Every structure is written in C-alpha cells, then in structure tokens.
Amino acid sequence: MGAWSHEPFGNDTAADWADGLEESRDFGPVAAVLQRAADSGEDLDAGEAEEAVAAAEVLAKALGRGTQSDAYTEPVDEWLASITVKPSVELLQLAQRALARVLAPDSELRELWEESDDFAQWQSSIAALQTALRDSH
Known about the structure:
Helix content: 55-70%
Largest sheet: none
Number of strands: 0
Number of domains: 1
Oligomer: single chain
Shape: globular
C-alpha cells in the first residue's frame, strides 16, 4: 500500500500528488481528483482514493481545520500560503461525496485498510476529515 500512517498524507501516493500542487494557482487539481473519486462508480482504486483523501485534507487546511500537520504536509501548507482563493461550497460538497465513495464497501482503499490492524484509526481519520469539511454556518 505504500502507507506508513492512517493520516491523509501518510502514504507515498498522497505525498507525490501534493508535490504537483505548486504548479497551480487554484483548486483545479484538487477538484479534478475529487471529481474522479466521486464519479468512479465501482472502479475506485486505492491510489485514486488516497489522492482524494489528500485533496480533501488540502481543503480542510484551507479552511483552517486540517487534520494533519507535520513534515509531510509542509508542501501543502506552503502552497496554500501562496494562493489567495478559498474553497467554494460546491467544492466542499464534492469532497464530502468523494470521501463517502472512499468509505464505501467496494472501495479498494477501504478493503486494504480492513485487512490491517489500523482500520479503526483510518476510519476515524476519514470521519475527522468529513467533520472538518462540514459547513460551519
């Protein structure tokens, strides 16, 4: 799985994806990953799911409610500091749909985590992210 943690950026795929953010000045790459996951039907593979979770964490961080802050998130923190746009309500709703898809019983990422001793921690991590993305109004 290339994962060392249940956190959003606790895997190789998410870290690699985040490295590409510096080339963008808006949430376009975030939206693209979330849309792909939300629309995946029965084809959501683990890598796409890991990217979707990382993208959702980027949005949570943009709202000041990130669930992970460490050396793995520094590139994201720096990128967010360099842009001026904020996530739209529609983008936050898309993130919620993508996370629901990641948690679905036929999600390859969920299946991989179910086989580990850290499944409950991973589920809690996703739930914290869902809470962080909810509209606070």
